[in-house]
Each structure stands twice: as C-alpha cells, then as structure tokens.
Amino acid sequence: MQLGGYANRMAHVDLSAGTAQNRPVPEEWARKYVGARGLGVRYVFENGPGVDPLSPANLLCFMNGPLTGSAASMSGRLAVVTKSPLTGTITDSHQGGWSAARLRWAGFDGLVISGRADRPAYLYVADGTVEIRDAAEVWGKGVHDTVAHFREKYGADDLTVIAIGQAGENLVRFASWLNEDDRAAGRGGTGCVGGSKNLKAIVVKAPKALTAPADADAFRAARQRALATIMDEKNITAPRKGGLSVYGTNVLMNITNTMGGLPTRNSQLTSFGESGEKIAGEYVNEHILVDDPTCHACPVACKKEVEIKDGPFAGLRMESVEYEPAWAVGANCGNDDINAVAKMIDMANDHGFDAIEIGHLLSVYMEATERGWAGATGDAGLAWGDVPGMLAVIASIVAREGLGDVLANGVIAATEHFGHPEIGMHCKGQGVPAYDPRGLKGMGVAYATSNRGGCHLRAYTPASELGVIPMRTDPLEWKGKGELTKLFQDLHAFSDSLDLCKFSAFAQGAEEYAAQYAAMVGVPCTVDDVLMIGERIYNLERRYNNLAGFGAGCDTLPARFVNEPSTMPGSLGHVCELDAMLTEYYAARGWENGVVPESKLEALGVV
C-alpha cells in the first residue's frame, strides 16, 4: 500500500484454529473508509449481517486510524467494532488511554478476530507478531486484577492491557472492554462478544515510536494549527481553556440539570433539582479529586481521578466520575451520593460492563417497584436512591443470578419481564444517554437515527445546543435539527475513523481534520472529502442494519419523550417533535423512512 500513516499490517486471528496471520490492508478500503471505525465497519460488513453476535463467526475488530500513535493531539482512541449482542445492529465503541497508540507502535493497524478458543485465551502483541496464549490464570478475575497480573508478568513499562471482566465472561449483553483499569469501550456489548470467544485480554508490549507522516512539514503545520484551536485562550469553550480540563466531562451535569435536559428517575423528570449539584463535576473537584491523568497526545486531561476519604467506600481510588455514568447511576436512579456513584462506576470498570446501561436497568426496576409492577412478578423491589440495594442488584447482574439473569440481557428483556415495555428508555435496545430530548431537541433525532442504538456520540448535537461551538442553536427549537444531526453524524464518522477524541470537535472542524489526514496519508483531502467519506461510512452502517432486519420505521424514540411534556424549568411543557425532525433528516439523507436506497449507495461508492 502506498499510503502514509498505516503499518499496512492487519492481524487476522482465528481463535478456533489457533492461528494469527498478518495481511495487508486493502488500499481501496483505506481510501474509502480511512481506518478505526470506518475500516472496522467494512470488515464486519463483509462478514455478513446475518451472523449471530455470540457465534464464533462474528468478527471482533480492534482498530486504530492513520493518525494513531502520531503527534496529532487527541489521537489516543481505539475503536472496537462488531455486531452487537445487545441491539443486533453493527456497533463501534471507542476507548481512550494508550491502547491504540501501543497497538500501532507494535506494528498493526488492527486486529480482526474470529472463532472461539476452546479454553480461556489472550493475545500477546509485540514486534509485528500476535500470539494466542493461555488465560487460565486470569479467567474469573476482574479487570483491575487482570491488568495487575500482566504488568507483573511482562513489566509495566511500554505495556497496555485491554481486558474483559466477569460480566463479559458471563455473557452480560452490555459487557465492555477496558484498558489501563478504567478506559472503557463501553457501549454495545463488545465485551460480551469477547466472552463468547473465550478471549480474556489483549496484551500489547511496544515502546513509543511515533507514526511518521507522508509529508512531515505539512503535518507539522496542520498539527500546530489543530493544537492552537484546542489551546485557544480567547475561546472559553476550547477544550483546554474550558471546563473539560478543570472539571472533566462531568462539567455538563449542572448545565443540563439547570436547563431541564437531565433525565431523572427513568426520565419521568427532566431535572434532578438541587440534588444534581451533589454529583456534578464542581462537587467532585472540591471534595474528592486527587489527579488529572490523560491519554496519548492529549493536552486536555479531562479524566478526573478521585479518592473516597470517608464512609463505607473510604480508600477507593479510581478514574473517573464521568458525566454519563454519574448521571446513569445518579440522577437517573434518584441517587445523589457521590461516593456511591464513584463506587458503582468502579464496579463497572472492574467487572467490565456499561455503566450507562446498568443505570437504565436499575431505574426500570425502580419505576416498576414504584408502580407496583415488581411485586406482581414476585421480585423484592428496589426504591429510588437505595444504594445498598443498587449494589446488590449490580452484583446479581454480573453473576447472572436471580432477577439479575434477566436484567443481564438488557432493557428490552427487563421491561418484558415487568410487563411494561413503555418504561424502557432505549433506542434499538440500547439505553439512551444523559440528555433529555424534551430539553435538547437535537438529541431526539440523533438517538432515533443512531446506527448503534441509543447514543449521543454519533451526532453530538449538545455541542451546538449548549453553545460549546460557534454553530449555536436553540435547544428547544426542532427546526434544523434533522440537518444538523446529519452533518454531525458525517463529521464524527470521519473523525472516529482517524481516530480522534470526540472533544476535538469542540475546537476543530472538517478543515483541521482534512489537513492532518492529507499530510499524514499523503493524498489531497478537502472539507467536501471529509464529509463525503463520513457519509459513506454512515450509509454503509445503515445498509448493514437494513440487511440485519432494521427496516422502514426503525428510527423511533420512547413514547415518554414525545407524549409526556416536561414538568421542569428550562423545558417546561416541551415534548420532542421527532416526526417533524425525521422528515427533515430523511430528506437530507436521501433515505426512505430509514432505509438506504440502492441509488444512494451507488452514488457514495459503497457498492
């Protein structure tokens, strides 16, 4: 392959056969889909959408991009791509830290894993080779102990450990992959796919060796330009200047809470009131913050390491109390105990499951209890904010014991158990994140049209609705949000394929992405090219989902968001006008009620 920025080495691992073969990356695919998310989607698409997610035939891809391992700011992201056992859609989930850079420094653009090992296994990756090794010593251990084991075995220097915990081993359908103890590829159940393959961990040993660009001078200029946007002292919303560096992602808690956009008590309310302040980034910063770790090549340092100083969880040290998980087990469950929130997030990191999804399952159980439906099914019940009860239910889910065996299958299974599907706040089987679409209208159409189920990261419209970027829009206005969502989906599909942190988009745009990509790879790239490639990736994902059974009318929201007006200040009286936004969105996409026509695929060069 003639393109710069790539190792041109993809490891194809067949766990059933016990083989690992290095193959070049098809240059046509690299040009069309870039890397990370886009390239991973192409491999999964070629494997066929009819595959059972938990069968040996499903592919599990760990992918980096052409900027990975370079000096490009915020380029420390790795994409895990597969067919989701939670939703049945194609999914990609990203993690920060150092795993992506070390995989590139070890000489790989990614790992494409198939099959199922006949006993617990892990992959050892170093110096352009991949070996399948016995994982019996760590099977049954949590992520923290697994990471410690391999650090002792191979030395902590130049080492990355990506692992699943007991949730993945027990096939909890929203299990995650973690690296360096706390950096999660959290959504979609990618860790469950790992467990189905008897794959416990990927251990990467590689010293730092920055990826060299095709045009060093042009890359230096493009990188400096991009870094300047991040560090801009005149722009209070620039990632380094703004609240991300001071309070981490949880800077959003007070903002969304005040504007009536924070789903509370399973989205029955749109604000947690004064209790929201007790789980916000400002409170964390004042009471339990101890450090600001960061990822490869990132000047922002949004991670906020905390230590619990008193109470039943005293001595716990972890990173970090992120906004989405803090909301999920906090406001969404009527829980304002920040120490308990930190404990539950640490459990998610150690046992290896999606903290957003666990918050949904707890809140569904809580609402079912409140309405008397849990008693009807013979379950003990769970009250809002009952911390000991929440901890016990989480443990039962991880172990798949009792009611936990039902909840481990996700929100749809939980609501069917209680006989009330209307209390499941999900899209395509995945719980929605921490933005109520009655208070942030763009999130409604973004959730509904996300190719991986309920998700804020396919199109982060709050960047516009909260005034984080210059393209500001009214959060309570639905007009224009369909077109905005399409634009953001395409832009993020490209940046996810580079693979740059989503927060880069708070400062950078298509021009900065195009310049860095062009200099690294050595091919011309314009703003139009960025958006075209992103659109191609998004349409390929949608084509996969269409073929997997998600046809016309699949883009929906929970009825609560469209029928039950907000009763809280900031969004009082508002519902989400999904149908109007979908009409606008489909017109912009050229889709027919959620289905990609053949003509669109042909125009984008997908087929």
Overview of this protein structure:
The protein has 607 residues and is an alpha+beta fold. The protein has 3 domains: 10-205, 4-Layer Sandwich (Aldehyde Ferredoxin Oxidoreductase,  A, domain 1), CATH 3.60.9.10; 264-422, Orthogonal Bundle (Aldehyde Ferredoxin Oxidoreductase Protein, subunit A, domain 2), CATH 1.10.569; 431-604, Aldehyde Ferredoxin Oxidoreductase Protein, subunit A, domain 3 (Orthogonal Bundle). The chain is built from 25 helices and 17 strands. The strands form 4 sheets. Strands 2-1-6-3-4-5 form a 6-stranded mixed β-sheet. A 6-stranded mixed β-sheet has the order 8-7-12-9-10-11, sandwiched between helices. Strands 13-14-15 form a 3-stranded antiparallel β-sheet. Strand 10 (177-179) and strand 11 form a beta hairpin. The longest helix has 21 residues, at 527-547. It is globular, with a radius of gyration of 22 Å. It starts with 9 loop residues before the first strand and ends with a helix. The model has no long low-confidence stretch (mean pLDDT 96).
